[in-house]
Design brief:
With 201 residues, the chain is an alpha+beta fold. It is 27% helix and 21% strand. A hairpin with a 2-residue loop joins strand 2 and strand 3.
């Protein structure tokens, strides 16, 4: 019992002495010299956010770039009355806004030199406004659908004069009008796109 009393008394005495020394130290040290470290817990908790890099835009808005030594193309027929037909070749864009190109088309095809790529598209009615002579010339360029164009059909085509295009590229597409579709008798927009080796021309 005596030993335990001595231990308890020593503990109390040590506690009082530590408290007294702490108060004395606080009274003697100037307040402007006491610096309390500030911990930025927000910076510790916040995790870094990884952002995916912005994808690089490709020619004619392709998802992936054409291989070196290839031409990029995309042909869009337009949709309804608001979206006009467009042809893009190597990032040069041509917007089609005309109602009758039949005669111009025949002259252009006849005068185009061998080794020419010819990109064509219809918007509105190519069934009656495109004359038989023009359809025949397009057929000679390799079109399989030019005779199947109906009232307000959407049609896109890429042909070659004087050489043959690779079999694995998309050359032609057609879509017929439907009175029940979203454009009320106008066909939905169609498109063809691809890459053509430059050494073919």
């Amino acid at each position: 019992p005596l030993a335990e009393f001595v231990k308890l008394a020593g503990l109390l005495l040590s506690s009082v002495a530590a408290w007294y020394l702490g108060c004395l130290f606080a009274a003697l040290v100037p307040k402007d010299r006491v610096q309390v470290p500030i911990v930025n817990f927000q910076g510790i908790v916040k995790k870094p956010v990884l952002k995916a890099p912005v994808p690089k835009r490709q020619k004619c808005d392709h998802w992936s770039p054409c291989l070196p030594g290839h031409y990029a193309y995309r042909i869009l027929s337009g949709g309804g009355t608001g979206k006009l037909a467009r042809i893009c070749f190597e990032d040069d864009l041509c917007v089609i806004n005309s109602t009758d190109h039949s005669e111009e088309m025949m002259t252009f095809i006849k005068n185009a030199p061998k080794g020419s790529l010819l990109l064509m598209v219809t918007h509105d009615d190519g069934s009656t406004r495109l004359k038989d002579g023009a359809k025949k010339l397009v057929e000679e360029l390799g079109s399989k659908e030019i005779r199947n164009i109906k009232f307000r059909s959407s049609w896109a085509f890429i042909g070659a004069k004087g050489f043959k295009l690779p079999d694995d590229i998309q050359k032609e597409k057609i879509n017929h009008s439907d009175k029940n579709n979203r454009y009320r008798g106008w066909p939905a927009e169609i498109q063809i796109e691809g890459c053509i080796p430059r050494n073919l021309i």
